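haha ok so turns out i had the wrong file open the whole time. this is the CORRECT one, sorry everyone. sequence first:
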Amino acid sequence: AQKESAEKFQAEIKPGDIIEGTVSKLMPYGAFIEIMPGLEGMAHISELSWSRVEDPSAAVEAGQRVKAKVLAVEQGKKEGRLKISLSLKQAEADPWTTIGGRFQAGDTVQGKVVRLADFGAFVEIAPGIEGLVHVSEMSYTRRISKPGDVVSPGQDISVKIKDVDLANRRISLSLRDTAGDPWEQVPAKYKVGQSYSGTVEKQEAFGIFIQLEPGVTGLLPKSRISKSQKPASFEALKPGDTVQITVDEINPAERKITLGTGEDRG
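then structure:
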């Protein structure tokens, strides 16, 4: 009777069916699911969860009852055996179709870093929903050359949603916006004509970049150095040196501060 019911089931099973089964064994590439005694299907690792899965054991365990969608039914190599391809994730709703108004630009959410690329970090903010923190969105206070300098896979972080593009399944995230933008305080904090202490970042042919605080850097142009009483003392400055300068111009929109040497140039 068992054989008959298995044969009947095999004759009727078709792609698109939702079936129940028990996880029988895990392999590095996926999970075998016993649909009934003597009949197994296989769910590839990419079909176990809407989330990115590195190891099947992160998604299912042996003995677990699961629902699965039948993807394909083919004749196996052995006579009378069927090769059944299954998907656990497709037996559930695609999370991208259900997030609707759940995430809005401006929201701050918790997420987990799932992988790094040269251009940024992918962060899962809900099961199966990943967004990208572009490397330019990682920090206001330091220049980041590679995402791994700031975050690592598996790390839980707070991110701010910049843009949600459901049609293309893209969410842009910002890590730096959760910490706040130091430039927002610049107009209130720095006054033209006042003297401040800064730290030399680097010397360039056209002037010296001087950091007033983390994330806020001004430029002391070469033209102003050459008009100062002691140009050599400025030209001798090295990165990390502290120097007294004045704020000559502030342009918050372009994030630019022009600095002066603090001397009256007559």
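The helical segments are 2-12, 95-98, 176-179, 186-189, 222-226, 231-235.
again sry for the mixup
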